């Protein structure tokens, strides 16, 4: 019988990371490739694999920060014109050693409902988050105005963008967050 414990451990211990509580340590290339490979094994109807990823590390994060600043300035956010907020977009990107775009590239011609392709990308993102946890990384899926902006998507060559995942090593273990009891969420139909 297969040992399910490692997978269940990653599911149970995955936590959303605080960007300001990450160490600056780089993530090794082989770990990044393992995390990205896990994403490619997500379920996808008809094996269409509608996901693409752009990975920003090292000095490449400056390019992403500039892009986020421009995208935020072009957004409808109330403070979009504020130069300090735009500058913050540039600086915050440097707080995590890795940023990975979540791009939706629907194979043409479209054969499936749009939502099915979106769900496949979401499953790929969850695989990434779980693989990151299994490798001792902290992570978070973020989708603020700059991170889903059409301007950001166009710059990446992505037809659609569903946000970014940032990765790094946490300074401390994020606390457990309670979950509702199973009986509050599940209806059993046995007959």
TrEMBL record:
Q: Which family does it belong to?
A: Belongs to the nitroreductase family.
Q: Which residues form the Nitroreductase domain?
A: 12-169
The cross-references to CDD domains, in alphabetical order and at most eight, read: YdjA-like
Q: Do you know which Gene3D superfamilies this protein is assigned to?
A: NADH Oxidase
User: Does the record's keyword annotation contain Flavoprotein?
Assistant: yes
What is the recorded name of this protein? Putative NAD(P)H nitroreductase
Matches recorded under PANTHER family: NAD(P)H NITROREDUCTASE YDJA-RELATED
Task: Give UniProt keywords alphabetically.
Answer: Flavoprotein, FMN, NAD, NADP, Oxidoreductase
Domain of life according to the entry: Bacteria
Please list the GO terms describing molecular function. Answer: oxidoreductase activity
**Cofactor remark:** Binds 1 FMN per subunit.
- Give the protein's cofactors: FMN
UniProt EC number:
1.-.-.-
User: Quick one: which residues bind FMN?
Assistant: 14-16, 45, 141-143
